[in-house]
Amino acid sequence: MEKRIDPITPADDDAKALARHLMRLKHGALAWTDPQTGTPGISRIALGLGPDQGLMTFVSSLAAHTPALMATPDCALMLGDPGEKGDPLTHPRLMLRARASFVLPDAPDRPALSAHWLAHHPKAKLYIDFADFAFVRFTVTEALLNAGFARAFRLLPADLG
Q1: In Å, how far are 13, 22, 73, 74, 113 from 56, measured between CA atoms?
Q2: Any idea which fold 8-81+90-154 has?
């Protein structure tokens, strides 16, 4: 039997730059595990880069993904937008495996995170101080960039910084 050639290659400089570009999108899809059923769920969430350039979000405890992430912090994110024309599968997208960590309401860096978030998501001013909302940081463990037809790259967390 012939050995199959892995079509996914290590990231070059262009792939790393494209991945970092996709991480600057303001939204993404978050995959999580339901703590009651053990089945997967997916949500569209607001995203941003924190002051440390790591991915973060701001979520309500009323959303299904919040208790899910609290119970099982391992998750995945899909970043990318289909273009206006053509097959959506030909447009770049970045899949990130990550671990979520919640920022406590009394964390010393919470005011700085709030100010940073509002600078990039001004409409959040309406709910930034609601008690049921929390910041979540994502620590990326691995990434896969599909940059278009026959252009797939593995990335390390260090490639994204």
Answers
A1: 24, 14, 13, 14, 10
A2: Pnp Oxidase; Chain A (2.30.110)
